[in-house]
Structures are given as C-alpha cells and as structure tokens.
Amino acid sequence: MVDDGSTDDTAATVVARAASDPRIVLVRSEANAGVSSARNLGLDAIRGEWLTYLDADDVLLPGGLRALSEASRQPDVRVVVGQRVWSDGRRRWRTPAYDIPDIRRPGRTSLAGRPGLLFYASATGKLFHASTFQGLRFSGRVLGDQPWTVRALLRAGDAIEVIAEDVYEWRRPMVESDGTITAAKRGSARVAAEAARVAIGALADVAAEAQAQLADPGDRERVVGAYFERLVRSDLEGPMARALARADEGAEDLFDAVGAFIASAPEGLVERSPAVTEGLVLDPLDYWVGAPASVRSAYLAFLARLVREHPSIPAWLRTPSLVRAATAILARPGGGRVAGVPATVIASLLLTLRFPQTLLRRRRRPRRRFVGPGAA
Fold first, then answer.
1. DSSP strand pairing (27-28 vs 2-3)
2. For the segment 307-339, what is each residue's pLDDT rounded down to a tens digit?
3. I need a labelling partner for 7 at 20 to 30 A (CA). Which of 74, 117, 195, 214 fits?
C-alpha cells in the first residue's frame, strides 16, 4: 500500500491492519507527488512474480482478483486483461470506445492482433508478469500509465489472455464538478494541454517499443497508428471542442500543445487519421459561432499550422466546400493576404458562414450502455 502524502487516517488504518497481516506493507511518500511517483515507489517494493494495481478511488470487484489469478495459470500467459466497468456510485456502464470486440472478446491474443486494446490503456484491471515490466517506470500526473501499459502489452507478444469477467470498477462521477483529477482533466483546457504535451513522449515511447518488439513493419504501423488514434479520440478531441464551446481559460495553450503533438507524429499518421479530421477539425467547429474572438483566433492558428505542415490535408479533408476553402486559404505560405485582407479574417468569415446554427445545435454523442443497478 503506497500512501502518497495522505492527510486523513489512511496510514494509521494500514498500520493497524498490517499488525495482524504480514502480507501488508505500507510505503509512505514524504509528500504528495502524484500517481506516477506513487506507482514507482510500489514498483521498487514489490516481491512477487505477478503485479496488478488498485487506485485509491476504485474497487476490485468480488472475485476479480481470483479470475485474474486463475487465468495466469494457463500455459505461457504473460498478461491477463480483465473487464472494467465505470461507476458513479449509483450505476455502472461501459463507454462506446471501450465496448468493442478487441477488448470484450475472451481469448489469447497480441496487441498487434487486437489494436483496439489500446482503448484500454490504463494499468488497472490487468495482471502483469514480471518479465513484461522490468525497467519500465511511470511519469507524469496525466496519461502516466498509458506508455507503461502499452509497452508491457507489447513485451507480452502473443501471450495476452483476455477474460470475460468484470474485475475492476473505475469510479468516475457523472457530474464533473467534484474536484477530482479526472474531472479537472475534462474541465480544464490547461490540464488537457499538459496531457497533450505528455502525449508527445507517450507516442514516442510506444513507437520505440513497437520497433523493438515487432518484427513485421505492418504490425508496427498498425499499433502505433491505433495508439495515435486513441490519444486523439480519448484524450484530445473532447477538450478541443470544449475549449471552443466554453471558451475555457487556457484554450490558446491547449491549441498550441495539440499542434505540437500533431507535429511530433511519425510521417503519414496525420494524413491517414480520421480522428484528426473529425475530432480536431469538425467537432470543434460545431461551436465556432459562439466562441469569443480570442479563442477563434487561437484555433485558426492551430488550423493554419495543421494544414501548412500537412499540405495534403485540404485534399483529404472531405468536408463542406466552405471549410475546404478556409483551410486552403490558411495553407497559403506564410498566411498572407487575399486582395489585401488577412487570410485569417477570410477564413474566419467562411467558417462563420458554414456554421451559422451552432449555438442551436449540439452533435449527439453515443450513449453509455449501462450494465449495473439503475440501468435502463
């Protein structure tokens, strides 16, 4: 049990339990340093052959640890992936991005064989053999477990066993006003900008591990491309749209950080990515009319950088003609002017003409599928 500088009676409770159960060991951090630091302290102290994680705000479901352990006894298994449910304390659900065959179908597999497992990139809900994580460390307060988990899955090769049992309950409030790190990440453009900066290193780490572990170039391209899509869809597209919709403080920082992440992607990934077109261009533009001028200007700078660094984007961005015209104008070398008018002004006008109804419309998102008490 790692105590990351708690201020309640956590440490005293653990000490009392450890007095009657020698399996329990308390590791204390001198100050609150974040989840990655806490996990690294735990990694330094572990003694067993197999490892699983339980975060402070989550729950291992009854029978979950037994299900993971029993699956690990099968021949040549190096990672066991159990099923996870979300909970707000009242209901349980699965999100659409998670509820896919690559994650939900039981059986033996590899990350190259099921790249959809990358949408389940947290370290929790899984059992790892020591051979998969030697030398791996966590870093950062956001996205810190993703590269660790993905690299461990890559090292497991084709010895990943997916089981059908729900083993882990991930506690996430439905109303994002509770002050948790997760709510802050979803509600703050500045925190999302930090995530985008961390994503640069995460993508590079996963690409390097794929290069080391996967001999087939097609497998490497599949895994790295799927992880890029996962980062855009799960960690970046939502904050980008919200930054325009709500004029979040720090929106300019977020757009800069996402632009830097896109620029860091391996060659060809951006051009092949539907997530970039849908999540970073079209979804934010749904909120164009309602955004203040400063946020619009910052977003135009992001869009201009995107189309200038990837000249083929105006061709493959199959969107209404006014959007294509705006991006083509922004792609002009150095920005420049058209008939004496700044290109950004013309692009802004074209986008306003294309999205005149956005204050009255919100794109409907896929609904959660409830699986527990209170389910419809």
1. parallel
2. 778 766 655 454 556 666 666 666 665 556 555
3. 195
Residue 304: pLDDT over 90 = no
Range 269-296 average pLDDT: 83
Find the helix or strand (DSSP H, E) in which 83 lies.
strand 79-87
Rounded to 5 degrees, what are φ and ψ at 124?
-80, 160
Q: Which has the minimum average pLDDT: 137-141, 217-221, 365-369?
A: 365-369
Element (H, E) at 87: strand 79-87
* Total-model pTM: 0.85
Distance CA 7, CA 16 (A): 17
Integer Cα distance of 371 and 355 in angstroms: 37
Give the model's pLDDT for residue 166.
Answer: 98
CB environment 90-129: b (16+ within 10 A), e (fewer):
ebbbbbeebbeebbeeeeebbbbebbbbbbbbbbbbbbbb
pLDDT at position 201 over 60: yes
The answer to whether 320 and 275 are in contact (CB under 8 A) is: no
Task: Give me the half-sphere count of Cα atoms (radius 13 Å) on the Cβ side of residue 137.
Answer: 7
- The topology under which CATH files domain 48-172 is Spore Coat Polysaccharide Biosynthesis Protein SpsA; Chain A (3.90.550)
DSSP state of 107: E
Tokens 């409030």, residue located: 173
Nearest to 304 by CA among 278, 285, 328: 328
Domain boundaries, the chain: 48-172, 181-361
How far apart CA 256 and CA 253 sit, in angstroms, is: 5
User: 22-25: long-range contacts at Cβ-Cβ below 8 A with a sequence spacing of 24 or more?
Assistant: 25/1
Number of other residues whose CB lies within 10 A of the CB of residue 284: 23
DSSP code at position 89: S
Write out the DSSP string of 19-36: TT-TT---EE-SS---HH
Q: Is 369 helix (H, G, I), strand (E, B) or coil?
A: strand
354-365 pLDDT per residue, tens? 555 443 344 445
